[in-house]
Amino acid sequence: MIPLTAELSARAGRAFAAEGFAAELGSVQASDRPDLAQFQCNGALAAAKAAKANPRAIAEKIAVHLKADPLFSKIEIAGPGFINLDVTDAALAQRVSAMASDARLGAPETGKGKKLVIDFGGPNVAKPMHVGHLRSAIIGDSLQKLFRANGWDVVSDVHLGDWGLQMGQLISEIDHRGIAPEYFDANSSGPYPEQSPVTMDDLEDIYPAASAACKADPARLEEARLATAELQAGRAGYRALWKHFVTVSEYGLTREYASLGVRFDLWKGEAAVDHLIAPMIDDLKARGLAEMSEGALVIPVAEPADKKEMPPLILLKSDGAVLYGTTDLATIIDRVQTQNPDFILYVVDQRQHGHFEQVFRASKKAGLNGHAGLEHAGFGTMNGIDGKPFKTREGGVLKLYDLIAMATEEAGKRLAEQGLAEEYPAEERAAIAKIVGIASIKFADLSNHRISNYIFDLSRFTRFEGKTGPYLQYAAVRIQSILRKAEAERYASAAPVVRSPEERRLALLLLSTTEAMEGAEFKRAPNILCDFAFTLAQEFSRFYAEHHIMSESDAELRAARLGLCALTLRTLSKVLDLLGIEIPARM
Ligand code: ARG
Question: What is the pTM (predicted TM-score) of this model?
Answer without folding.
Answer: 0.95
